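Before relying on records like the one below, remember that each one covers exactly one chain. Contacts with other chains, cofactors or solvent are not represented anywhere in the record.
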Amino acid sequence: MTKLQVIFLLVAMLYLVAKVVLGFIIYLVTLQIEAAALERNRRRREYLQRVRERDRELYKEAYQLYQKRYGEQPAVVRLPQPEVRETAPPPSRTVQKPVARENKGAIGREKLQEVLEF
């Protein structure tokens, strides 16, 4: 092998090694970011749970009055589903050839004559 081929192989190997190392580093960074995001998500859920419990305690009387008035009715009212009727599929559209218009100018002049005469 010539020196140029050896240099090319060395550069190609260095490129592949760098690519693998960079991919591994990106994988590790992604794991760290994921762990931090999961921790933030856990803290956010805990905070929201505390807020809901506090609100439940603050508005306990209002909730009791609501339950007394409306009972266990669902909060969402189900709408009736529309009837689906089976229809024939739409006719396939066929490309129609344009109608040749001959003497368009003559027809236009005749209509213009009729309008002017009126």
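The longest helix spans residues 3-58.
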